[in-house]
Backbone:
């Protein structure tokens, strides 16, 4: 009987397909092939992870680690002013259209909810200076929804004179509110 060297055994192992037990317990070579539906599910999951990473990055501007691993609101007064301004816009728009803030922030697609929500998003983006990801967090929406709302409002303003005059009135009101928030912060400093 002829004995084989260790080098020859290693070469034989390299040539032979890897065998392991598959789900049915057989010792056939295993090839991991992903079905198209599983691949699309993994793509959707990766996309959700990317969106969550962007939201975490936007939230990092608002929070910082506190004692015992808790989170606290970021002490940056400018960011706090911007957040307060967005909250005031949400409150004022919801009051004007006789909606609760919860109704304004829901995903309801009825026009009686959509128009005020898009108006609030448009005004918040215009006056707060926050990016769409941060606004998405405050409105409980995706940043793409904020962009869509702003584009819809811009189109509506350019086509509808009543809408344009309404937005102009809102803009003057919000400028006054922003000035009040800024003077209130200066007085407390």
Residues:
């Amino acid at each position: 009987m002829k004995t084989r060297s260790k080098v020859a055994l290693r070469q034989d192992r390299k040539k032979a397909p890897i065998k392991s037990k598959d789900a049915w317990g057989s010792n056939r070579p295993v090839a991991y092939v992903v079905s198209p539906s599983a691949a699309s599910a993994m793509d959707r999951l990766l996309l959700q992870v990317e969106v969550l990473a962007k939201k975490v990055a936007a939230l990092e501007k608002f929070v910082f680690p506190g004692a015992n691993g808790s989170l606290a609101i970021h002490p940056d007064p400018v960011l706090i002013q911007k957040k307060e301004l967005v909250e005031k816009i949400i409150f004022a728009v919801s009051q004007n259209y006789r909606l609760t803030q919860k109704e304004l922030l829901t995903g309801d697609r009825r026009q009686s909810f959509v128009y005020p929500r898009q108006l609030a998003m448009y005004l918040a983006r215009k006056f707060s200076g926050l990016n769409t990801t941060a606004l998405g967090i405050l409105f409980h929406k995706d940043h793409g929804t904020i962009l869509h709302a702003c584009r819809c409002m811009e189109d509506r303003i350019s086509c509808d004179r009543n809408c344009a005059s309404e937005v102009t009135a809102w803009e003057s009101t919000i400028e006054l509110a922003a000035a009040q928030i800024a003077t209130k912060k200066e007085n407390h400093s």
Observations:
- The chain has a mean pLDDT of 77.
